[in-house]
Amino acid sequence: MMKQEHSWQSLDFYQNRELIKEIIVSIDQNHTPANNQWEFLYPVLDIFFLNKPIIFYILYRNEKAVLALPVTQTNQHKFFYRWSEVGFPYHSHINLISMTNKPSHAEMTSLLRNISTDGFKWDRFSIRHIFSPHEVDDIDDDLKFYKTDYVAWFNTASNLSINDIVSKKHLRNIKRQEKKLLSEAGEIDFNCNKESLELSLSEFSELEHKGWKGKSGVAIYSSSELSDMYKIIAKNFGHNSMKVFQIRTKDTLLASALGFGLGNTLYIHKVSFSSHYSSFSPGNILLSKILEYSIESKNLDIVNLVTFPKWAARWHPNKSPKNEIIIYNSTMKGLCLNLCIRLWRGNKPLLKRVIKAFKAIIS
Fold this sequence. Notes:
Elements: E1 6-12, H1 17-26, H2 38-48, E2 54-61, E3 64-78, E4 81-87, E5 97-98, H3 105-117, E6 124-131, E7 139-140, E8 145-155, H4 162-165, H5 168-185, E9 189-192, H6 197-210, H7 212-216, H8 224-237, E10 242-248, E11 253-262, E12 265-273, H9 282-296, E13 302-304, E14 318-328, H10 332-346, H11 348-362
Parallel strand pairs: 4-6, 5-6, 12-13
Antiparallel strand pairs: 1-2, 2-3, 3-4, 6-14, 7-8, 8-13, 8-14, 9-10, 10-11, 11-12
């Protein structure tokens, strides 16, 4: 087999926005999650990384662009230790990315060399939340490729029915709860982007803010920055790609889910429900209808939940690993951090007890 020639191109985000967008679009991104797309990335970068250095590294193989990797720099800390980290933008609303053209060891080595040459001072490099459709080894010694979690997903190919996807017992429970909800709340309507995407997003955000995410400060309406970000994301994607699902009565929103239909996959990023009707499991009712919606769609074959929330276990979904690439620099901080993390992972139960006892003493 002929060896592929590779090279990296460094493009400053602020000076090359349109060119980077063209390159991202030219790479086959139709089947990648929203967090890979410029429509999602640009608002995150513009709002939460403003005035910070951002460089897109474009990987070329045989002169063809195959990967566009944004790199930013942040200051991180754990316990009493602080370090400089570079890598894919780290943000709580970036929780699933795809790397179908994962860099080889040689390509990653040259990337890190370019990152240092471009002026980044770093102790650790990281790319997190990488979706892997197939199992990989827990640790790849060459790429420091770690399995961290799983992603839940459902096969919703059009030749299936929901009985092929979800257990009959679980469906019976959902139907029973739906009947109770009907008698309590009245007629229920299921819709996607009803009236307009903007209105549906606003209603979702209001419902989410009333729940535990609002109380915890992680809801869309918890900050003006997050609210502005999702408004821009909705404008960028449009109603054909960004989906807000609802079950509601005439006057009351019972549950809502925010997602993106990209390629043959529907990615569900957020789910929220009315706490007043929580005893009827409106979130379960909504998800069952979303699965039926996907089955009936000609274009959707997969519903991906982006994470593996605890409640998803009752649905017995398929699961695929989520991974991260971690590489430590040979700086003093990088070497010490690597040692500390290894010690932490090897002695986590004991160290947790020690930290808990220390906190109890000083409190």
